[in-house]
Structure formats: structure tokens, C-alpha cells
Amino acid sequence: MCPYYAYTFSCGHTQTVFATWCAKAQISQRRCNTRTSSATISATLKFEEKCPDCLSMGGSLTVGPGQRR
Ligand SMILES: [Zn+2]
Ligand SMILES: [Zn+2]
To answer: In this predicted model, what pLDDT tens digit does every residue of 1-57 receive, in sequence order?
Structure first.
């Protein structure tokens, strides 16, 4: 199975992000299934932000896209 990173956000959501190809995937050029709980998590990274899903839904975003100080 290809290793994935688990991103943990301050909103409590977790995203699994593709990390690298495993030997099997390199040959077939196809990633192993991302959406299974059996995905190998190689590292867990913590973010002090909300996940992209929550950000796109609005919320209390202080600095939005195209909005600079
Ligand atoms: Zn794989
Ligand atoms: Zn979220």
C-alpha cells in the first residue's frame, strides 16, 4: 500500500494526502486506494488551521484570498 500523510486540522477534521508510490504502484502507475481506512499513514501532520473544506464554507476567516494587509 502506498503511504499517506494524515493531516489533522484545528476544526477536528483529518485529511489523508498521498505521500509516495509504493513498489507495486510504481510499476502499475496507479495509486492504491486512498479512501480506505487501511491506507498506510506514514506521518501525521498537525495544522493550526481549519481544513480546506471548512475554509471554503466561510467561517471566521481573517485573511481571505486576494485580501492582504
Ligand atoms: Zn501502493
Ligand atoms: Zn474541517
So the answer is: 888 899 999 999 998 888 999 998 999 988 886 566 567 888 999 999 999 889 888
Q: pTM of the full predicted structure?
A: 0.61
Closest ligand to 30 CA? 1
Q: How far does the centroid of ligand 2 lie from the alpha carbon of residue 30, in Å? A: 28
Cα distance between residue 43 and residue 18, in whole Å:
11
Taking a 5 Å cut-off on Cβ, the residues next to ion ligand 1 are 1-2, 22, 25, 32
Tell me which ligand sits closest to the C-alpha of residue 47. 2
Segments making up each domain of the chain, as ranges: 3-51
Can you tell me the distance from the alpha carbon of 68 to that of 6, in angstroms, rounded to the nearest whole number?
30
